[in-house]
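User: Predict the full complex structure for these chains.
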Amino acid sequence: MGEITELLTLMIPAMVPFLLAAQGTVLSGRAGVFNVSQEGLMVLGAAVGFLVSFKVGSNTVGMAAAFAIAGVFGLVLAYMTTQLRLDQFVVGLALYFAALGAAGLLYREVIGVTMEPPLIPTLEDKPIPLLSDIPFLGEVLFDHDLVVYLAFAISVAIWWFMYKTRSGLAFRSIGENPKAADSLGINVTWARTWSTVVGSGLVGMAGAYLPMVYTGLYTEGMVAGRGWLVIALAFLGGWRPHLVIAGAAFFAGMEVLALRAQVAGIGIPHQFVLMLPYVATLLVMVFAFRWARQPSFLGRNYDRESRLVG
Amino acid sequence: MTAPPATPPAAPEAAGPRRVADALWLVVPSVLSVVAAFAVGGLIILALGQDPVAAFESVLTTSFNTRFGTVETLHKWVPVLLCAYAFAIPLATGKFNIGAEGQLLVGATGGVAIGILWSDLPMLVLLPCVLVAGALAGAVWSGIAAVLMVKFNVNEILSTVVLNFISFQLIDYVASHVWPDRGAGHPATVRVGEGALLPGIGQAPPLHSGVIITLVLVVAIAIFMRRTSTGFEMRAVGANLRAAQVHGIRTSRLAGAGLVVGGAVAGLAGAIEVAGVHGKMLEGMQSNFLILGIIVGLMSRGSMIAIPFIAFGIAVLEVGAGSMQRTAQVPVEMVLIIEALILLFLLLSDIARAKLRRN
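Assistant: Here is the predicted structure of the two-chain assembly.
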């Protein structure tokens, strides 16, 4: 029992980067903007979040800065795809490169080469009063840092907005049939713009969480492909915020298990253990793409003057 | 009396300026995009408190100042170019292959396996086997993504990326368990047999002959895309999926084939890196070729002919980046930012050109 509690307790914070970034991806995706710059935005978010926290001395400010800078990249993506109608994948990839370059440049300029890598304080656990006293559940769910609660709150908020409000219904219709939405007076461009800015900002925050949660260090390659897995996660969850939570648990669970198996040494070379999350992702996607829905206008630009839709 | 027909001599004249105008519409925006990207990059360098003129001078001249720089540039050109093809060939059918680095690494694994296992064979037999094994291994690796895409409808962006991360662990395993070089202090295999090495051209430092293989491949790919029916079908699918389907082209099978061919090219790049540069397989040998290949592929915007030239330009920038950091104290990442800016400005120039020409 102790072992399982411990694994689950580790899994919850491991879910956070997946959750924040995947909900951000889902948010813009439901309006039809398929962002593929997540990996770059997470790296940039990690670098900016770390550097600002280091200089200002506040993780909160660092996280806000990561949100802001990734949001600016999202604005560029939104402008180039809604106003100029450039290909979403091509612009997304270009922004991925720009973000990678900017992250490396900023770290090297601010920190340079040092003998001792700089450290920021890691986030403190803030147990929720009363709830954290519940045996088992309290320990697993309610004894974490504030960003954990925030990530779950954001997930619920996005789900609430999309499925329980009138404007959420209008919002979702854009990703399915922008022409119909437009004819009902829904502002397609505006919805795509704000959702891409906010969604990208969440991806940046997901990156910023990484140096703040485990070690307080920033290392190149610490994002380690999570940005790409997040896209897989969005597909796996059928672009629905509540299913994405379950998917994030799966990805985080694989990550925690692989690390644990590596530490425990189970007779299999650790390379194969570290492969597992990715192999599992491939296998799961076979089912995800068979069964899960996706917005029908995902990844395509809307031109109101074009007669062809669909 | 013998009035010469007016039209025939006039036709080439009319075509001449038209051709020139077309070429200008192609060249001028591209040059402006590059200049604009360097201008923005220069402003960033100024903001960092460094000298942009000195920085750009070392970026642009390092490749041509010494034989060493030139050889290094050509050695970089080969994998960048092949990874660009690995991206651009599937893109011709509308599919995004983000897996060139995994395909390159698995190709290197295939090449190094043959080079170590059959190390006693003479070069005439062994070297072709190494290169073919590399291409086949790369094709198998991207073939996984192709099967998932064609049979199970799995998005190829995701499957190719995820296969990259699997390949990192795979080569780490090969380099630390199967043929480890314990003395390397870094995951690396033992060296391949002498017969598996590409002969060098010239002296100190020699240029590996993989450059010639690559040149042959450039011509072959251009012919394949322009002159064969499969190449034509691939371009048709990329240009208009619906029209191609209506005309009876089996589009999904073709897209799968595009991925497999792309993987074979990337795998060949891996084998050439083993046989020409390292003489073994080592962790990190994929460098940033994936990103550079994608950048080149996107910059070419569908022109297979442009890819070798763009790849050369990118190789020059990459070789210059290191010396820029040493001499002008501008971080190497600046070059990646400039490359991304060039790409964005090229995309914008397409829109501007379409608008201007219409008026």
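Chain A has a mean pLDDT of 90.
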